[in-house]
Structures are given as C-alpha cells and as structure tokens.
Amino acid sequence: MDLSIIIVNYNVKEFLQNLIHSIKKAVSGLEYEIIIVDNASDDGSVELLREKFPKIKLIINKENLGFGKANN
Predict the structure, then answer these.
(1) 3 three-state secondary structure
(2) Which of 6, 19, 34, 65 has its CA 20 to 30 A from that of 55?
C-alpha cells in the first residue's frame, strides 16, 4: 500500500462524488485506499457511498465525534 487517504464526512454528500473522482485521478499508478469516517450524517452520504463506491472503507459513527476524533 502506497497511500491511505482518510476523509471525515459530515453532511457533505454533494461534494463526495467529485472528491472521490478527483482522488482517483490524482493517485493513478499508486496502490491506495480511501477510508471515509462518517460523523452521523443524515443527508444520505452513507447510502451514496455504499451504492456508488462499495470498495471504499466506511466507518460510521453513531454520533458526530468531531474532526479530531474521527481522524484518530
């Protein structure tokens, strides 16, 4: 594994697809993983990720733990 990318998500469904597509273009040729930590979003982010990006590792928090805790 060359690169692990951790993204903290909270109700930004409208940005996720563009972000993921941009990452895939930028890391071309590298072995990488994307890990998204969802901080209890209620905008359909989790459903979008499960449906369109099933290979992404998804960690779902039951409550918003904040940026710092979600990264650790």
Answers:
(1) strand
(2) 65
